[in-house]
């Protein structure tokens, strides 16, 4: 409402509708920009955390495999069987005479054999499963394998990995092979070819198996050496009985 002061009109104080609309538009644009920046920052933080979690899980998985492969004793028996399906290769790695102790359902168990196997899942990947057995699964110099039995316990080492393939290096021919069942000999290396997620990068990792002496073969060698170098004590004649001291061909050693 306008007022009069003498001959002059006075303009009341306030904002025009256009000014209010422009202010609200600027505020909305500013808030939208702030919200977009905040959302992008949160999304980036979530990706960084997820990537760190993924890297940690992958490194822990590789370290677990490497530690167990490097600690295999000299009398360990290794068998690798690879199933060739229409979509992928599915390896099964059996290791025997590698002492493993673990707790299952609150009870301590000592495993005579472990099996690292791959189980396909509906998503298209596989689960890497570690099974523990209380009885031998493979024939060796000390024991015969039992009929296929149920595992005493199992654990999923890695869920939904897109590719998990194993090969071993034969030290005699220096060739990589997908199946191994040689008694009394361990492969020189184990190669892991893995893709941890769909459309992920290919990871090739090598695990060394340090050559070690088979303790059973070492004990047999020591016993044979002791038997081969053992000396025989010749009896001494009693005075007054006479007779000659018997001689042993070859200087008295047998």
Automatic annotation (TrEMBL):
Q: Which SUPFAM superfamilies match?
A: Pili subunits (SSF54523)
**Annotated region (Disordered), positions in chain:** 225-254
Keyword Transmembrane helix attributed:
yes
Provide the alphabetized UniProt keywords.
Answer: Membrane, Transmembrane, Transmembrane helix
> What are the transmembrane regions?
15-38
Q: Where is the composition biased (Low complexity)?
A: 225-235
User: Which InterPro entries does this entry report, sorted A to Z?
Assistant: Pilin-like
Q: What is this protein called?
A: Type II secretion system protein J
Q: Provide the species name.
A: Roseibacillus persicicus
The taxonomic lineage of its organism, from the top, reads: Bacteria, Pseudomonadati, Verrucomicrobiota, Verrucomicrobiia, Verrucomicrobiales
